[in-house]
Amino acid sequence: MALVRPRFTDHYGVSLAQSDLDFAIPLLQEDIPLYLDPFLLWRSPSLQDQALHTSLVNSFNRLNWLLQKGRESEAVSSLILASECDEVGLGVSATKKGKRIGSRVATSTLNLFRHVPEYGRHGFNHFEEIQLYVDGISRDRISDIACNFLKSFLIDYTVDQCLGLGIPLVKVVLPSLYDYRKYEFSADVSVDLPVNPETNQPILLVPKRWLRFVPWINFDDYFASSCPKDDVVNQCGDDGRVSVLTYNRSNYDAVAGYIAAKERSADDCRNDPLFKQIPVISAKRKFAEIQKLPTGVGDKADKKYEAAATQLLSSLLYPHLDFAATQSRSEGGSTIRDLVFYNNRSVDFLGEILQDYSSRQVVMELKNVRSIERDHINQLNRYLLNEFGAFGVFVTRNPLSKAMFKNTIDLWSGQRRCIISLTDEDLELMVNVFESKQRQPIDVLKKKYIDFRRACPS
Question: This protein's superkingdom (predicted)?
Answer without folding.
Answer: Bacteria
